[in-house]
Amino acid sequence: MPIGREHVRKCIELGIKREICKEVNKWIDEPVKQKPGCNHRKHRHDLEACIEIAQEYKSLEERLEAFLACVQHIYEDCKHSSKVSAPPDIQCELMDKLFFIALQCYIDGDEEYCKLVHKLIEEKCTC
């Protein structure tokens, strides 16, 4: 399984701002302090967590970067372990697809993929 520095390095290689890469990857793995090993992945290693962290950023560009950083982190964990989140098969399959979609939006600016991602990361309702 990739360690924190490896997650950040791969994130930066995608063109995401270093600070966002560091913040997102640190946030995702914070539960490891209470639940060492793969058990920490039952927290913050899912779609809802990626949406949550993305919505912490103000600009749409930063939200997209945070979302992609989060999805990429989980995608990398899935490639290196069979014990990611519960249920692992669904989360890994979902993250594999989301990584492709988010990457096509971020790298290529694909309009259709961007519409999907933007719907996920739009501003929270403050009703």
Task: Provide structural commentary.
The structure is a single chain. This protein has six helices and no strands. With 127 residues, it is an all-alpha fold. The protein has one domain (4-121). Helix 3 packs antiparallel against helix 4 and helix 5 (88-108) crosses helix 6. The relative contact order is 0.15.
Keywords:
127 residues
Briefly, what is this?
It is built from 6 helices and no strands. The chain is an all-alpha fold and 127 residues long.
Task: Please outline the helices and strands.
Blueprint: H1 4-13, H2 18-29, H3 47-54, H4 60-80, H5 88-108, H6 111-121
Helix pairs in contact: 1-2, 1-4, 2-4, 3-4, 4-5, 5-6
Envelope shape:
globular
DSSP, total strands? 0
Assembly state (oligomeric) = single chain
The total tally of domains equals: 1
